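Ticket #4471: complex job returned nothing on first submit. Input attached below:
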Amino acid sequence: MDISSILQGGYQHPLSRSWQAQRQLTKEMLMYPIFITDDPDASDIIASLPNQRRWGINKLQGFLDPLIRKGLRSVILFGVPLKCVKDERGTPADDTEGPVISAIRLLRDLYPSLYIACDVCLCEYTSHGHCGVLRTDGTIEPEPSVARIAEVALNYAKAGAHCVAPSDMMDGRIKAIKRALIDGGYGNRCTLMSYSAKFASGLYGPFRDAAGSAPSFGDRKCYQLPPAAKGLACRAIQRDVGEGADIIMVKPALPYLDIISHASRLAPDHPLACYQVSGEFAMVHAGANAGVYELRTMAFETVESMIRAGATLILTYFTPEFLDWLEV
Ligand SMILES: [Zn+2]
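Support reply: We reran it on our side without changes. The output follows.
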């Protein structure tokens, strides 16, 4: 056999196989999405999202203590208000007694080393379930939408969030949030992570069950990106870099690895996040339950594909499992 034919000599040992990756998954790369609800004692199973729960503020310590001991470094909080009065502009989003702001304060107190990001959107808090403020004809009105979203982001920063992450996909919101953070004195105290390329995906179903955030009419296709829109995703990424995003995100991850790869070239000097969303997570579980593959093998394979594509930060519901799996 020719010398040039032989590759296997280079990866015949487990250690030399690990050297074939340009980057390895580490605990620092994992951000765990957590649902916080307004019943302080809640520990509610979410049927469509395996092993995940809606947590009340009084249950957070019992839930997180073991994960912190295993090396959990960061979380992203999603508010799930079940009792509040929703209105047109999402007033309860930054209620100082609401679940998100209460959770930020508590977690800052309990875990000084835990990095706390907050999803910023209005849909969980608006009466119509859309991510912005609407005109009477039901279309998004951009200016009041971004003004309100920036206000919420600043209030999360004031409560102690290390990072605010707008998922609303309104035009101009990154600039508005960055301005609000700077003017409010948080420009150098809070990171802005943009859901830059967020696609109108079929993979958000379990999340909507978890967060109760399905729109009451219509859909989100006028602000989330069409799945085939690579050019639009590139423009959104470049725009958000220009508007002051500190971290860029692609969401969902697995069907959009090409976008992640493209984003890593478009924004090579920014951390690049991707969100392994609820439906992707449920899909990996469903396949494992059906005997198609082993859960751990496929969890690693999906996340490693994201890292290979260029992601440096991964939001995943598999975080608790990875904290165990990366131990050995
Ligand atoms: Zn939303």
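Residues 25-325 form a domain with the TIM Barrel fold (CATH 3.20.20.70). Closing as resolved unless it happens again.
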